[in-house]
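OP here, attaching both records as promised.
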Amino acid sequence: MDIQDQLKQFKGKRVLLLAPQFFHYIDEIRDAMKAAEIDCDFLDERPLPGFTGKAIARYLPMINERQVAKNVDDQLTAKSYDYLLVIKGESLSTKLLADFKQENPNAKLVLFLWDSVANSKHAEAFFDQFDMVYTFDANDAATYKIEFLPLFVGSQFDPRLIDQDQQQDIDLAFIGTVHSNRSELLNLVEKLAASAHLSFYDFRYVQSKLVYAVRYLQDRAFRKSPAGTVHFNKISAEAMLKTLRRTRTIVDVTHPKQTGLTGRVIEGLSMGRKVLTTNSKVLDYDFINKENVQIFDEKLTNLDEDFIMKPYVGDPLMVYKNFSVYKWLETVLTGTAYVPVDHRSVVEKD
């Protein structure tokens, strides 16, 4: 059975997706729904773009709430929906949810947190108004009695689409936003990679020059970022995928307030690349071969060259199927608990 077939039951359903536009992830959700012939309308829960929109959503939520509630109302005049799927929930309001329920009394409301509850306090107040609340953070799932569901990977990370014999001429790669203690740990990896004569593609994204200035003043490690590693423009999805395909080992520094696996980890492992990460929770997944993972922290004194240079161990298809956006959508639309794909079913059906 093709992995997309699990969404056949939702063909023709109408979904209102309310989420921040974050890198390539929203496009992956929308593409998967389109492929499954699910009618999806997307509204950005940060109406103002860039750093300004993010700052307003976090520090002046009432401004954001009013505009987003109006946008939802405008959408409801044109169409009815079977689902309201909210990601992160920075702009949620009592009015927004009440209006949606009034116009769509039989619809299911689902909230997914791809950030920790500590970073999503606004959404926490609305948990009881949803039919199902999911989080990518296993610790938060236990603490707040909500459902655990890991992040997803888009179809472009399907290992069957990747030439596993492609030359991997980049030893280590990091692509992500600068925050928390990332600069300190990435600087450490930079230093150790240089000592071991290993190549390191290090792309650190900063949202604006204002964020850069504040972080430069407050973060000593950030001030020591190697030349050429800090960027104000996001890397394109195409360039990122091309880089990861050339890379042996993906570097991941998880936010200290999170325990959920980041996109870097699951994308890398799904496409047949190894991972060097600060997140020990990756070891909790039975379908991930532990030989493809190493954990590190600020005490790291040298890079394991054997680990970095040796090929990926096992078949990445099982990892991809467990993290695929199709499985993620099936889980949230059925409102069920996340159940990993059994290894035997992957072997037998493909």
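Record two, same layout:
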Amino acid sequence: MQTSFNEQEAKKEFQAKFVENFKEKLKKVDQKKGMELRAAGWQLIKTAMRTVIFSFGEVTFSRRCYRKNGVNRYPVDEWLGLEPYERFSTELLFELNNLATEVAYRKAANLFEVLKNVFVTKDTVLKSRKLATQRYEEQQEYRYFKEQENSGKKEVEKIYVEGDGVQVNTPNTETKRTDLSHFVVHEGVEKEYGERKKLVEKHEILEAKNKTAREKVLDYLYNHYQITENTLMITNSDMGKGYMFETFSEMAKAFGCRHEHFWDEFHLVERIKQEFAIFPIEIREPLIESIMKAIEKHSKKECQLFLDTLESLIGDETKQENFAKFSRKLLNNFQYTKPAHMRGFTHDGIGIMESLHAKIASRMKNRGMYWSVEGATTMAKMIIDKAEGTLRDLFCGSWREEYEKYQEMSASAADYLYRGESEVALPKSSLQWWKKV
């Protein structure tokens, strides 16, 4: 069937008309805001042109500049929320980052052009990611300001903390890889609908350095919860470096609360499968089932006897030594394999980290991609925020206006924040407070 209608051309026509209407809107804003400034004693000094790429297209417009006491103001720029010399709108940068959490930078630029009929380059997407890094730093400072004002803390009977690392390729580092430290804090689980459950008050923390992440976990717990000696802190990890029992024990000791730690079941099973790979395939599954039964019964004696027997059957000296090393780790940490029902509570809410990692890994690991440490950290944070539905708030949230007010206070952000060469910016009042407990 032949048709004379060209949808692509029609879309371009509508887009051009929208841009013209938008420019008329800017003229009205310029006039109105200009009248308000003149009434307040500001003098019109010039009219200047500016070109900005918005999410609906590139717009070149004129706006007036006013001066008072040596300070210049462009009311249209302020109304649009544009920083000096910025060529991209905040909404555009948000939408590019939103796409970039799903696909590579170049593909994000191509998709944006197809979907929006607005041309951008992969460098524009990279610029938007760098802006996100800056926004996270500012949002962190803003949160500390707010936490100092908010004295209300929630009392809870149980608090859950889990931690694990996400390894990404960072070729410009010494090791060529970086483990992003990922922690999650929540209050347990509740039914969302049907049999589906969700975590209560879930809060994720991700940083490039394990120490920084742990400090932020402690600071978050301190500022949001009233944790007492009666509170039970339930922790879970893969028992790797930076996530051993001692890591979480220090957190519990900082609050003087009760503590139960778990060796994450998923990672434990995977580690057993890995270590038992040295045995013939025809007997491997029965061996794994046998040791898992001993763990489920929480019989350390039975588990030790089983491991000693297997170790004696290994002929290769190197393999025997590696297996013995694993056996010692399992037996030395056997108490953390004790099932939840034997400890007096359910397993709900324990072992959720792997599912939270999936959204990060699918974007950042499975495609042979490589990152800078800063880029990887920011991208992972954006992926988390997108899943939580809070990514737009990072760029367009009302916190920005309030944050600017804090910056304008006589006591500037620099007076409130300590900055060390290798430390995250923390308020003096809460910096490493737990060391004084």
